[in-house]
Design brief:
This protein is mostly beta strands and 594 residues long. 6% of the residues lie in helices and 65% in strands. Strand 21 (499-507) and strand 22 form a beta hairpin.
């Protein structure tokens, strides 16, 4: 498997792996359920004359899944240690299918499983930035297909063994595609620039995967699984384009870079078990419980109206990136990357309200709304071929950050019973963020202090602001299941087929009042969350979970440079690309009205 590298949005890799998508929460879910199962087994009443018949997992199954999470593709620098970059974040939405077979011995279950997923992914970052006098490149990457072949080992919990906690491991394969593109090589109004080059790759490679999950038998024919998977890949060597050094003027020859990739994925899957009537129900458990039973223990669906509402506290980390690109000068010409601003390590805390309304017909409405703040983070402002300088990278701090968000969905549960709900939904999401940039330190320049000195500059001074607003439709699946009577596992996987972005970047240290109007659309995104909750009573629950959000625009979105001088105004249109991430862990409490 690939060795973990520092992600492009933050150097604090261990913190990022823990926070992104609540990996530890999903693993902790299995541990908690295993422990609860052990406790429950000691509490079985010996007075029962006829123990319930143990359900058998033996047999074949086929199913589908939706998944999402984040990945990273690392590019080695053949020219020397990098000043910055070389790791591309690749958030990915996955949809696909699985086929497998289980063998059960007592309560132990052994199985083999094949999975294949189509991936929607996008990621870009700086690479080959090994010297301040050499023009850098942009690397982009993203998987298009992921497949695994694994062995599973699990243990069946509960009086009838309907809950399967398992681990899995085996081989993985991916197809990863992308490119390495040189930045602006000293093109200006009088000089066309040196010849630029791009190298592309579209390669498959093998790796390894491990995972952990919970699978709940809903009916004799159907089961739902909640799973976390890690996949790691060593990659091929890909060509790097030649680039320009200045000063002194020289051509840096082409070479090769070695790729490696890894992914952390949360998954919801639905399986049909062969040889069983798809409409079959448990003989000793009706679709919806009688009123007396409903009062004795928590249920997810009574077949009538129900409303659940509560609050969450979300501890999260955010990132925002936008690329500034010169438009083609004539038909057939290429756009030229020239600048990139990356905001990272935006650690914040937010409070939110959430709720879900279920109807007797399986139709549901759900949503959340939240408000948060952050006062931590940094901004890297990179420029290529600016005047006589090949590469500059100015570092600033972040302060006075705030963010707001909401989601609103309507859906239908196509499978529901007293202890499970599985459905699909459509909806809308919105996310807004604002922050201030403070101070300036030059981290890469042949003139080390510039542009972080001068009459307009002092450390601790406000030097810029950034406002962002994102909107997107959501299409997804929602599932929840009661396991071991009082534990509930739930997850939402949403794909964002299109995004709309608007923002404004204010540069405050220039002689003229300078700002960039930002507009973007197209692209895509994903929103994934999973939670483990415990019912203290049949109505009151507390829980913990993890969440990962990412959105991006198409490559050739818009930005307009504006500079207001005394007696005049300059405007220049260019191309841009925008992307955001926010991920972390939440705790929640809720009350359910039946």
């Amino acid at each position: 498997m690939a060795v973990c590298h520092h992600p492009s949005f933050d150097d604090d890799a261990h913190c990022e792996v823990m926070m992104r998508f609540g990996v530890l929460n999903w693993a902790a879910a299995t541990a908690a359920l295993v422990a609860s199962g052990a406790v429950n087994s000691t509490d079985l009443k010996p007075a029962a004359k006829v123990p319930p018949k143990l359900w058998s997992w033996t047999g074949g199954y086929i199913g589908g899944h939706a998944a999402g999470g984040y990945g990273r593709t690392s590019f080695s620098d053949p020219y020397g240690p990098s000043i910055y970059g070389d790791v591309v974040d690749t958030p990915a939405f996955l949809a696909g299918g699985q086929l497998g077979y289980n063998w059960q011995r007592d309560r132990w279950v052994f199985g083999l499983e094949l999975e294949a997923s189509r991936a929607v992914s996008d990621g870009t970052n700086t690479c080959l930035a090994f010297s301040s006098v050499v023009v850098i490149a942009t690397c982009n990457a993203g998987p298009s297909v992921l497949a695994t072949g694994t062995a599973r080992v699990g243990y069946a919990f509960g009086p009838q063994g309907h809950t399967l906690a398992y681990v899995k491991g085996g081989a993985a394969w991916q197809n990863n595609h992308g490119a390495i593109t040189n930045h602006n090589e000293f093109r200006d109004g009088t000089f066309a620039g040196y010849p630029r080059h791009t190298t592309q790759f579209d390669d498959g490679c093998f790796g390894a995967t491990v995972g952990v999950g919970i699978e709940q038998q809903l009916t004799p024919a159907w089961s739902v699984k909640f799973e976390y998977d890690y996949m790691g890949f060593g990659g091929p060597r890909v060509a790097t384009p030649p680039t320009v050094q200045r000063p002194p003027l020289a051509i840096i020859p082409a070479s090769t870079s070695s790729l490696s990739s890894d992914y952390h994925v949360g998954k919801v899957g639905l399986n049909y078990h062969f040889g069983v009537d798809p409409t079959a129900e448990w003989a000793d458990a009706p679709l919806h419980p009688a009123t007396a039973t409903a009062k004795a223990k928590p249920v997810l669906s009574t077949g009538g109206w129900s409303l659940e509402g509560g609050s969450r506290v979300w501890l999260s980390r955010g990132a925002f990136q936008w690329d500034y690109t010169h438009a083609p000068r004539f038909p057939g010409d290429e756009s030229v990357p020239t600048s990139r601003l990356t905001y990272q390590g935006l650690d914040g805390v937010s409070g939110e309200m959430f709720g879900r309304l279920d109807s007797p017909w399986g139709i549901f409405l759900k949503g959340n709304i939240g408000l948060g703040r952050f006062n931590k983070g940094k901004r890297n402002d990179e420029d290529s071929s600016l005047g006589q300088w090949a590469y500059l990278n100015a570092l600033s701090g972040q302060a006075n950050g705030r963010f707001t968000y909401y989601t609103a969905d309507a859906g239908y549960d196509f499978l529901r019973g007293s202890n499970y709900k599985v459905g699909a939904f459509v909806g809308w999401t919105s996310y807004g963020e604002k922050s201030d940039s403070i101070g300036c330190v030059q981290t890469a320049s042949s003139s080390p202090a510039w542009p972080c000195t001068g009459p307009f500059q002092r450390q601790g001074q406000l030097i810029g602001t950034q406002d962002t607003d994102w909107n997107a439709p959501r299409i997804g699946v929602s599932a929840e299941a009661l396991v071991l009577e009082r534990w509930r596992v739930s997850a939402d996987i949403a794909y964002l087929p299109w995004t709309e972005f608007s923002g404004r970047d204010n540069h405050l240290l220039r002689p003229a009042t300078t700002f960039y109007d930002q507009r973007g659309d197209g692209g895509g995104g994903l929103q994934v969350e999973g939670a483990l909750s415990y019912f203290l009573t049949k109505n009151v629950s507390i829980g913990v979970g993890g969440r990962y959000w990412s959105m991006w625009t198409k490559k050739d979105s818009d930005v307009i440079y504006n500079a207001n001088w005394q007696g005049g105004r300059d405007q220049e249109a260019a191309l841009a690309k925008y992307r955001m991430e926010r991920w972390g862990t939440f705790i929640q409490a809720s009350y359910k009205f039946d």
